[in-house]
Design goal:
about 20% helix, three-stranded antiparallel sheet, 2 domains, Nucleoside Triphosphate Pyrophosphohydrolase, about 200 residues
């Protein structure tokens, strides 16, 4: 079974067969045969089910954005990116669950939290790599954020090596110069731009 309930068979789609080939607390790999609107006989596909995630765009009172630098083992690099994490508690389609998990990730990874007057704005969601996984990433903009009295509390599996505030111009330059190259941060930037949230 998938980790979340967003992906369901609908008109023209039907799961004909399914077999789990691997599972751990983070991913589940299945070999599926699925009928699609254009392939009534079905098509075989390897699907990686992953928990939904939340990407947080933290904005300081002066308008700067917070980025973290995190080691990413699959690509053997430390990368600047917006904080993010899997949604571990509750229904990943619920706005309240997404916000609660997002604020937790913000505190853990940056040592910042929403100010008492902060607005937590949903920017929708996207699929991170829909050719092989059903992982969906929710986008949240939290503004303004302030230092948390508790500081950072990194997860034991994370290696966050830095946190810095950047201006919009610096963020644009990092994206244009390919210094920022993760899908989460690029998607959040694109969504903010499309919604008119960037001057």
């Amino acid at each position: 079974m998938p980790f979340h309930s967003l992906i369901v068979d609908s008109e023209g789609w039907e799961t004909l067969e399914g077999r789990e080939v691997f599972a751990n607390p983070y991913v589940q790999v299945q070999l599926l045969k699925v009928r699609t609107p254009t392939r009534p006989g079905g098509v075989e596909w390897t699907v990686v089910h992953r928990k939904a995630a939340c990407v947080i765009v933290p904005v300081l009172e002066d308008g700067r954005f917070l980025l973290i630098r995190q080691e990413r083992v699959p690509v053997r690099q430390a990368m600047w990116e917006f904080p993010a994490g899997q949604i571990d508690e509750g229904d990943a389609t619920s706005p309240e669950t997404v916000a609660r998990n997002g604020i937790r990730e913000l505190r853990e990874e940056t040592g910042y939290e929403p100010s008492p007057q902060a607005a937590v704005k949903s920017l929708g969601f996207f699929f991170s790599s829909q050719g092989f996984t059903d992982e969906m990433c929710h986008l949240l903009r939290v503004e303004p954020v302030v230092p948390s009295a508790d500081g950072c509390r990194h997860d034991g599996d994370e290696a966050i090596t830095g946190c810095r505030a950047v201006t919009l111009e610096e963020l644009r330059a990092m994206i244009a110069g390919n210094e920022i190259r993760d899908a989460n941060t690029l998607a959040a930037f694109a969504r903010m731009s499309a919604l008119g949230l960037l001057p």
